[in-house]
Amino acid sequence: MTKLAGVFPVLPTPFTPDDAVDAAAFRRLIDFAVESGADGVVYPGMASEVETLSAAERGRMVAALGAHLAGRLPFIVGASHADPAESAARAREGMAAGAVAAMIMAPPQAGQDVERQVAFFAAVAAAAPGLVIMLQNAPAPNGAALSPEAVAAVAAGVPAIRYVKEETLPCGQHVTRILAAARGGPDGGLDGVMGGAGARFVLDELARGANGTMPALELADAHAALWRAWSAADRAEARRIYTATLPLLLLQMTFRVRATKEVLRRRGLLENTAARAAGPKLDEGDLAELGALIATAAPCLTLHPPA
């Protein structure tokens, strides 16, 4: 398998006005990711409101993703679960749909204990032969918030773990430390560490050796352009895009998927912005501020100009 690198946005889950999963809208979002120049996609993740999806909904959407992508981009299936057997089942479901890897969150119930973490991931790998795992290290309470050295030790103990998505703060420092610790491992290190945290620290992560980023979808074209500029050693252009988009990402940090969906609506990519996830809703003042921040980012949004 070609090593995974670049921009892999996490796709949101669109809903109809009556709260059903909207497969037609989902296909439009997949097409946007492809045309934006993204290097791959991730589904489902926290930005997909995964905690609100039933097993049946989740399975249908993963299958729909694989069928609609039809090999145009690689995709990583989210397969986190407290039970390693359930996590493996979700990974196999993704692999059957064409996923090249499974992103699995370090389980908080295993705590900071490296041996318990290794046992968990080893059980997942044993139940899903051939699985490539991306260990997602997220802050508490959702994740285990492993130290960088613990992340590297868990990866060293489970050969199926080839990638890490690092989201604990300070993200940049942790990328440096994971890569340094992993280089001393038995196989010479990981295939890559990707940044998360909504791409709010993406330049620092890339400067420290991250091989990509996994933001939400609404700015996929801008993030793809930033990655291309960085890869071409055009640091000034990468910085320009980052500076223009960061204020909008800061607002998204508070309102999460609701902000993502509203930006997608204003870009003509989504009709209904309903969300199931818990969290604050945008009021009139927030919507006005979001509009101003979209205008700041607009020169970097090359597709579907925002209304």
From TrEMBL:
Record key words, sorted: Lyase
The keyword Protein biosynthesis belongs to this UniProt entry's keyword annotation: no
Is Repressor a UniProt keyword of this protein? no
Pfam families, from UniProt? DHDPS
* Domain of life according to the entry: Bacteria
Q: Which family does it belong to?
A: Belongs to the DapA family.
Q: What is this protein called?
A: Dihydrodipicolinate synthase family protein
